[in-house]
């Protein structure tokens, strides 16, 4: 067997080759791309002899990118190792905190040689699942970017134009019509001059209902007396607000387009029907859950393994007389967010889910712990549906938690 540690950077890879006894066979600095992969294959051929590709084990700190896909396509075993695990593993060599690319490559090679049975190999997801992952993560990232930009916009308005926050509260400041009005009149003086006709025209273009009443409310709020800043400072603030507003409008457009891409790719996947049968899951949430779980049928040996990866199952900490059960905080945040949303929506979609949640609250569990336990239960149900290739059934899913019938 040949063990390879691959410390990757943007434009190169530091690799170290070891044999099964930990003896260093070679080390090299390889360029990114086709040339680097070719040189890596040459090193494997030179030191591996007639080894089967499956006997070549690679440890690397990522599970994405064309380089990783090329390693998998070559038939190598590829392990994506968390950088935190590598940092802790390196402490056995020295406690000084020293770091080098060659040292990281050596640690990665040692890890796949010594602790391979404790590491998670890169999942063999299908091309469709990987495509869903790309568009779903991009869609969610754009939403997070919009939220960050909105928070900056709101903070800026509070400093010089708080009346705008009250005026556009009913429209939601992230909506395109509110942003267009803000761009049209980004200062208190300009906003006070907006006519009801101008406001109504913008609302009509975006098909708002009760336009006349909304326009009157907005105009009255914008014409309220308020504290003002010097003209030069107000002009600088208005330029910043206009930039943020235009950016949010662009993000709104791209989020809408990416949402259609997410739905299209997700519905092409053969597991989409099973995901959509689950309570609390629609196209976007289903795509996010599928993207993070993947579709490799051998990845999760049991429902417990899937729950542990999801971060919904608790962690036990026992030492001496101390014994506590805590929530997992080191987890996949994208997956945790999607499962939390599913659990919340399932409260109204599934009577069994509602009973299970109420049961946790009756045990004096707070809102978030109870919702997390419901999410943990739903992950187990999803695992069973995927394993048996059957859609969700309300009676089967909650048969162990059904209310006892009166005698």
UniProtKB/TrEMBL annotation:
InterPro entries assigned to the protein according to its UniProt record, in alphabetical order: Transp_IS110-like_N, Transpos_IS110, Transposase_20
Residues in Transposase IS116/IS110/IS902 C-terminal domain copies: 274-357
Chain ranges of the Transposase IS110-like N-terminal domain: 4-162
Protein name per its UniProtKB record: IS110 family transposase
């Amino acid at each position: 067997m040949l063990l390879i540690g691959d410390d990757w950077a943007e434009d190169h890879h530091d690799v170290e080759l070891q044999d099964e006894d930990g003896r260093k066979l070679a080390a090299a600095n390889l360029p990114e791309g086709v040339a680097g992969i070719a040189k890596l294959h040459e090193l494997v051929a030179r030191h591996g002899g007639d080894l089967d590709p499956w006997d070549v084990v690679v440890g690397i700190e990522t599970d994405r990118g064309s380089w990783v896909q090329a390693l998998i396509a070559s038939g190598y075993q590829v392990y994506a190792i968390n950088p935190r695990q590598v940092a802790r593993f390196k402490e056995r060599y020295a406690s000084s905190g020293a770091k080098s690319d060659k040292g990281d490559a050596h640690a990665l090679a040692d890890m796949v040689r010594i602790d391979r049975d404790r590491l998670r190999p890169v999942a063999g997801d299908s091309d469709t699942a990987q495509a869903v992952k790309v568009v779903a993560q991009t869609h969610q990232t754009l939403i997070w970017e919009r939220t960050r930009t909105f928070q900056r916009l709101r903070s800026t308005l509070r400093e010089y134009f708080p009346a705008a926050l009250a005026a556009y509260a009913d429209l939601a400041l992230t909506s395109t019509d509110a942003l267009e009005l803000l761009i049209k009149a980004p200062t208190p003086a300009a906003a006070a001059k907006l006519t009801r006709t101008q406001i109504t025209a913008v609302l009509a273009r975006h098909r708002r209902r009760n336009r006349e009443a909304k326009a009157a409310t907005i105009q009255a709020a914008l014409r309220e007396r308020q504290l003002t800043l010097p003209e030069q400072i107000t002009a600088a603030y208005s330029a910043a607000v206009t930039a943020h507003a235009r950016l949010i409008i662009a993000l709104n457009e791209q989020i809408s387009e990416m949402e259609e891409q997410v739905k299209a790719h997700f519905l092409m996947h053969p597991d989409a029907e099973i995901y959509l049968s689950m309570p609390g899951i629609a196209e976007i949430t289903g795509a996010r859950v599928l993207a993070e779980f993947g579709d490799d049928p051998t990845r999760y040996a049991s429902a417990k393994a899937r729950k542990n990866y999801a971060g919904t199952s608790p962690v036990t900490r026992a030492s001496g007389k101390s014994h506590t059960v805590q929530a997992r905080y080191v987890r996949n945040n994208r997956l945790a967010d999607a499962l939390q949303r599913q659990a919340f929506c399932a409260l109204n979609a599934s009577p069994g889910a509602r009973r299970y949640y109420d049961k946790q609250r009756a045990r004096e569990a707070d809102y978030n712990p109870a919702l997390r336990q419901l999410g943990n239960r739903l992950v187990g149900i999803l695992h069973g549906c995927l394993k048996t290739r059957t859609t969700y059934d309300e009676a089967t899913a909650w048969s162990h938690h059904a209310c006892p019938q009166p005698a």
